[in-house]
Amino acid sequence: MDIGVLPRVDEHATVVAATAVEVWDALGASLEQSFGRPRSARYARLVGVADRRASGPRPLVEGAVVPGFRVADAVPGRELVLVGRHRFSTYALIFRLEPEGAGTRLRAETRARFPGPAGALYRLLVISSGAHALLTGRLLAGIRRRAEQVT
């Protein structure tokens, strides 16, 4: 999937008082935990997520699967590109890690296409409602907490 053709939805960021290696490790662990929960599995079935089961090598590398996402690219300590699709959307979630003072800036960019009337309704319910921003913010905060516990 060429993520460049997907429209940009939003971007969220946090500064983590930890090294890029620590943030990278926390990112992988947090994704596994967040998207491996029973609630996430039920949601994945409901919307018809293509990749529902975790698979592939760990730590995450290209081709590995986190429920809801396939790893399209992984540059440890720098960038993780996740892609996915379901009945209402084709999407990408791109995590970028950059030096920030004594720590690391972690950015999460979402790109997605919501085709047809069902996709437009899904976008309204998930994106326009603020639910996506809330959940992405919680995910980033969890990664930050996990990474900072190591230091």
List the helices and strands and how they pair.
Blueprint: E1 8-16, H1 20-35, H2 38-47, E2 65-66, E3 69-75, E4 79-86, E5 89-100, E6 103-113, H3 116-128, H4 131-150
Antiparallel strand pairs: 1-6, 2-3, 3-4, 4-5, 5-6
Helix pairs in contact: 1-4
Question: What does it look like?
Answer:
This is DUF2867 domain-containing protein. It comes from Streptomyces griseorubiginosus. Helix content is 39%, strand content 32%. It is an alpha+beta fold. The protein has a 6-stranded antiparallel beta sheet. α1 crosses α4. The mean pLDDT is 95.
Question: Helix coverage percent of residues?
Answer: 25-40%
CATH superfamily: START domain
Q: What is the CATH topology assignment?
A: Alpha-D-Glucose-1,6-Bisphosphate, Chain A, domain 4
Name of the top-level CATH class: Alpha Beta
Provide a count of the helices: 4
End-to-end Cα distance: 36 Å
> In order across it, which strands form the biggest sheet?
1-6-5-4-3-2
Q: Mind describing the biggest β-sheet?
A: 6 strands, antiparallel
Number of E-type strands: 6
SSE ordering: EHHEEEEEHH
Query: How would you classify the quaternary structure?
Result: single chain
Based on the coordinates given, report the CATH architecture: 2-Layer Sandwich
Structural class: alpha+beta
Mean pLDDT: 95
> In percent, how much strand structure appears in the residues?
25-35%
Tally of separate domains: 1
Shape: globular
Low-pLDDT stretches: none
Question: What integer value in Å does the Rg equal?
Answer: 15 Å
